[in-house]
## 1
Amino acid sequence: MTGEAEYVIADPVVASVAARAALDTPGVVRLEPGLRGLVTAWTRAARGRWQGLDPAPIDGVRVRSVEGGLTVEVDVVTSAFDQAAAVGRAVQRSVTRGVAEQTGLAVDAVVVSIVDIELERR
Amino acid sequence: MAVNETGTDYELPCGRDLDALWDRLDSVDEHEATCPHCGTARESLLALRSATAELVAEPDPVPPGLVGRIMSAVRAEARRGQMLDLPTPEPGRVEVSEAAVAVVLRYAADSAGDVRARRCRVRTVGVASDGGGIVEVELTLAVRLGNVDGAETLARVRERVTTAAAARVGLTLAKLDLLVEDVYEDGE
């Protein structure tokens, strides 16, 4: 026995951290869950209620771990005050950094989909 | 009016009636204890009952903004159809929906004055060396009747749209076609 322990970080944890990192990026108005994400969020919320937990939001974030590689997909709405491409790149960087800092996992790729750009509303 | 003896068409293969099973969900008789059909049906009914009970017990039956969230999800789903790649040096991809780009470009055209943007079609025609998509845009416009200098107005639209594509989205337009298909009068 070397006393080493193996830590397994579940995908929803990575997703929550990634969602928070993406939301905190300047120029991001909100995450966009889409229909599939909405259903997943409800299921998670319901399960969380049964267990007395309030799960962190992961709307609009999908995590895929394929053959040891970790890919995070984020769907966002950006503000037209900032350049969409620049905001997208900033989201890529902050998700990679946030996941590394909070879970110790290295993200191999971040796919940012800007589904909408908000003009001067609100 | 003739009334069906069982009162329902939901009869199980064993001959038992689903409604009757629902009525006696908590008291199982000898047949139901061993019958696989009744057993399966009973399990489904129990799951249904607990799910409905949970919904009834939900203190906040309709989460605030539920309709808004569903509609925004539906709209996002529609926009997700066609995506354009934006340049990025980071591993992964940055993409933007054509519909989102169209909204930004139409808005830019409107701001030029004396015109109103109608349709905006965005097409990817290639990939630039930085990984970003090369796009062609076709913008349909209506110009104000009595507009003194049409050529100048269109030049202004072209400038605004090209600038918005670069500044607000990060796209370089390979081609911008402006089609004037209508006129409008002030106050319309």
## 2
Amino acid sequence: MTQSPDLLFRALADPTRRGLFERLCLDGEQTVAALTAGAGISQPAVSKHLGVLRQAGLVLDRHEGRQTHYSAQQRALAPLVDWTGRMNRFWEARFDDLEDLLKRMDQ
Amino acid sequence: MTDTELRTVTVEREIPHPPEKIWRALTTQHLIEEWLMKNDFGLDLGHRFRLRGDWGSVDCEILDVDPGRMLSYSWNHPHEDPAYNLESVVTFTLEPSGAGTLLRMEQTGFRPEQKQAFGGAMGGWRIHLENLEKTVAALG
């Protein structure tokens, strides 16, 4: 399953969603009600955030009776952990800083 | 085929400054700190130094020096989680070009064993989220 990195970035750019994803990673599968208890926001708001995470492939939902259980899909983070991609971004940023420094060295 | 694959990252840029000046920025402790990381760099062959960032440190050793033209050092990032344990070599080459210098950085290393990270280890993903935040912030 390949998800657009854009969806992934957008899903994780929000601190509340990162918090929900973090709890699912650390504590395992949970219901919306359980997640709401620790989130400090309303259940519909939690559900909405979970929907965004689900679209990005970051969580999986499982229906059981009236309850929906959510679990984290860490594999969805793959585009972010690709070594060459990460190092490439790292060095591009370092080169930017190097160019800034070289300009300052003229003064 | 082996489990670990050799990977190379290359970043190349035309920089409107002479090679001698860029060389200084690549090889002077207080200048390296300004664009790369805090360090105890030394230009002698075999000199071991450490680059220190907010997120950890990189162990380095000077492998090759051709003053003003080429600098190569090891870039090892030991990590308790094998998924992030990195052994690599970084080589900078400077070539005079019309406007200034063509600066190239090539990093070759063994790809960390990423698959293990997804198998159950929970620790590493935080780092990626931190990186993500920076990336998103940089996008403005």
## 3
Amino acid sequence: MLWAALPLCFLAWAIVSGQDLGTNPQEEILRGLGQVSLCMLLWVYALPLWARWMDPAVLAARRAMGLWTCGYAVIHFLAYLQFEHDRLLLSVWKDIGERPFVSVGLLGLGLLLALAVTSNRFSMQRLGARWKVLHRLVHLIVVLSLVHFFLHKMGKNDYREVWIYASAFAAVAVLKVWPRRPMAWR
Amino acid sequence: MSPRRADRQRRGDDLAAQITPYALWRDRRQFLQASGAAAARLAGAAALSAVMASPSRAVGATKDALTPVRPLTARPSRWVSMEKQTRWEDATTYNNFYEFGTQKSDPARNAPGRLKMDPWRLVVDGLVARPQTFGVDDLLKLSPLEERVYRLRCVEGWSMVIPWIGYSLSALIQRVQPLGSAKYVAFTTLADSQQMPGLRSDVLDWPYHEGLRLDEANHALTLLCFGAYGQTLLAQNGGPVRLVVPWKYGFKSAKSLVRISFVENQPECSWNVSAPQEYGFYSNVNPNVPHRRWSQATERRIGEDSLFAPRRPTLMFNGYAEAVEALYAGMDLRRFY
């Protein structure tokens, strides 16, 4: 699971050592973190397929991967807070009214956090059957992330990257649903 | 010479001596690469970028230029922002010129080797008494060239300070004599699929159109631009001739103009057509009119400030309010955005 830390290490090293991050580094960092979060989310989402067809053992990494995804999403949010609002939490409120794609992103982040804090044995015991229902929200989270990305790209009519991610999601979603087979890992 | 005057002279000389010769400053990238330091930096950035998003900096802003760049002499003008000018390197490698690709680094990568800026024809027609076609040399002789240091504010929330070279569009307008029925001016950018790979994408309806009201076009600030940083415009900056309207969002400053038409009705503008609720005909820089994707209340000045420095407040009309607000007296700028 350590490879999941690589993007973060690169970013930290780049910032600390004063690397050339481009003409608009704040933009690069924010977008980059978003892309990494989205990639990881899709990877976690597709993990059951990998387990079904390749190696069931990968499912053991599912929790860690999910937590890493949530971690990157949180850092993406912190980067947004820093680079777009200069750490002023109050001005995020204005964005919710004025920039719908931010609202969608915040909702997705909130749901992701809910899943992250309940990713432990204690929560599974306390919530019982409701835990499974709660964690089905991952489908919604992926959709919200794609909508968040789409609404952002709408400003420049540039949907190529969105289509790539959306196609990947659609393919995984379809394959997960059909054919249905009971999973024997829990 | 008195000691004090000698002192001042020495300080002035010191300051003058500190100014890097332009050629060395412009070519410092090559200089740094030769010494190997930049190679290591680029490798680091490339590695990071491979993991994260695509880099915005393209190497070699002037490599393989189809039309070589030449120096342009211009007299100073009264329109000179005293803010720090954006580095030439940034202004020529971070561009929105979708005809050459949608990434910021695409124009610098694709335009110089593809855009043929010589010969060039600018057709001026429509409701004018003297329609004519100009070559770039004709245009350069039309009026004395001035250097104007303008702020440029992109709708995406970043800005630059660029020393443009040109003259007021009004000089050209006077030459062609618009008729009384002319109320607007429409601008068209080159759209040649042979030269512009970005035309394959349907991001916008090509060719790129822009437009101004006649009084906006006649305003002294509206610049018919032929150069920047002491030389003719690079392909990625919209050479050989472009428009610069500093109090509006950057996309109104159409690049690589091939046609200027005087018309009676409000002309179609490409971004306005693609998303009318977001991109208005006027698109005046206005921190009070929010945008669905980028905050217009603040901006990031490219190349300035450290990574964690705060954003700057965006000024009404990009700081040119005193000069242009009369054009919009009595207009509801939230309605006519």
## 4
Amino acid sequence: MKRRKLATLLLGAIMTTSIFAGCAKNSNTPTAAADDSNKEVVVRLGCWGGNDAETKMLDDQIQAFQTKNPNIIIKKEVITGDYLQAIQSKIASKTAPDIYYLDVSLASKFMKEGIIDPIDDYIDKEDMKDFFPNLLQGYQMNGKTYGIPKDYNPLVLYYNKDMLDKAGIKPPTTWDELKTAAEKTTSGNVKGFCLENDPQRFGAFILQNGGKINDGDKPAFNTPEAAQALDFYYSFAKNKTGATFKDMGTDWAGAAFAQKKTAMIMAGGWVIPYMTQNAPDVKYGMVPLPKGKQDGNLMFTVAYVLNKDSKHKKEAMEVSKFLTGKDGLKIVAESGLAIPSRKSMADVYTAKFPERKALIDATPTATVANYGLNGSKILDALGKAGEKIQFGQVADSAAALKEAEAAAK
Amino acid sequence: MLQAQKTAPNKSSGMKSLARREKIDGWLFIAPFMILCLIFFVGPLLVAFMLSFKEYSFLDSNTMFQAKWVWFQNYIDVLKNPTFRKALWNTTRYSVFVAPIQLVIALLLALVVNGGIKGKSFFRTVYYIPTQTSAVAVAVIFMFLFKQDGIFNKFTSLFGIQPHNFLTEPKTALPVIMSMAIWSSVGLYMVIFLAGLQDIPDSLYEAAGIDGASNWQRFRYITIPMLKPTIFLNVVVSMIGCFQVYDQAYVVSQGNGGPLDSTMTVVLYLTRTGFREFKMGQACATAFILFVIIFALTIAQKKLFGEETSM
């Protein structure tokens, strides 16, 4: 009897502890390493999974860093799925990486909540002047800098060379030319211009018409300028010279472009590797977005930010400074996957990829895609407004924007 | 005499300690599960309940316990929110369609499979396999089937029906999700109905046959009443599952509940409020509102099926 009871106890204990063996222990640094005479430090880098080419690019950068700094070990932690959800859980449980990717649209919230540390003490002010100022501004609050942008993408107009040649037109440079171009390239199942119910696309038109998306943390899109811009954008759907990529039966604009279902799309540089892989036969070009009353464009960027709970801030900043330094960004420029955030690297990029000059040209007049603390609510409300206009559920754009403003408050 | 005195008390205390030992053994056996349950289920439940009365987001620098108390404000805000109301309406509509259809098909399948056809095991397996698939994988496949130039549209165009883009039209997006859910969970309820059917004694059917009952009368007066506990179980489980629909809605709408909020379900609304709008308190409040709704429905169903169930 006693033996059986002992066995039961033992079995119960083993089973219970074996269950917890699966839980990874997340205490940051193994203290043994810190006592090591080599003072090896492990810096955890959080990133999202990209396609194979992106992964290779980051690995190349990490490799270049490790050869120069053998006693700082970079541990890459790829977050798959919903990055925002995953990183929040990590932050709440104090297991977030030392440095991690932060999209500019989330920057305001993270900066305000103090989850990331200002990095002014670690960076060289002179060196910061090499970065495009509008990119850096996205990560600055109250005069302090919180992140170093690593690369960016503005929107450009991609056009199918064959389709435009057949219609006998040049790539459009103004709103009117865009309208004509879409009309002339629409035939059969092919629509001239691809639309998206995404304020991060039609927002560029709002900016070009002199409107705004947000003013600090408040929505500022309920204006006649914005309504006019949306009327123009969705006129393509009304006149059947354009359609959303979903209506074309695809997952995103790039797929519609690759499958030759549309002649023109508005997107960033991420289309390029997709086209190379999926539609190498499509001849296309890139031009800056057509101009409305003024130039206007949206720019998306990602930066490395510093976790305020990191135990190795100095080493972590060494890593992020290298990855956004001239050597680190040279790797990015040469891979062509994204545009390096430094002005000095812009020439390296255009030297290797002269056909993509449009991306660099678009940069000075682009507004970085930071919509303030209420950003996701503003984007959601605007997106729904776009949907309503597309489905004809509202009288006109002005009415949709009015409803959206109320929802975003 | 002394010996008897010695053994007698030992015997009775022996019985007591045996009972006690069995009790201790019992607790030890369920200890691993209890510990897991407490840590991963009861604990978070209590914390979520507390959070539903507070204002909190995962990005806050203060801990959950230091967060500000807002009492019922979260609940009021959620109930007033038009997106939540749309989500609740969508979810209710979804459940009202999916649950009955699921159960009727499952019952029919169970009757057929039970009816002594050849290859009974084969059909049982084949109908059950979809329940083991990942909801996300099913959603992706259905999206492929129902897209503008997908197989379903190609099939209907044979009959001259115009191709619809089922997933981008607000009226048809939710029905696509409904069909997904029905397809993938019918097998589960079929298996439960099968078990219930096999419990019905053959003698009842024989007696009915002698009395000259038709198939329909046998079904109506023997099968259904004998299946009442099983039907009750299936209705409750099905309703609970339907109200918590999330995976399919997320995949089909790419996370935003579109088009025009037609695929916004309560759980999708909850995750968006918590993780995108950084309002964990409201998200927790939504979870408990959903709990109250499901609980009320279950009680109502119990009353409906009432006396006859042995539950």
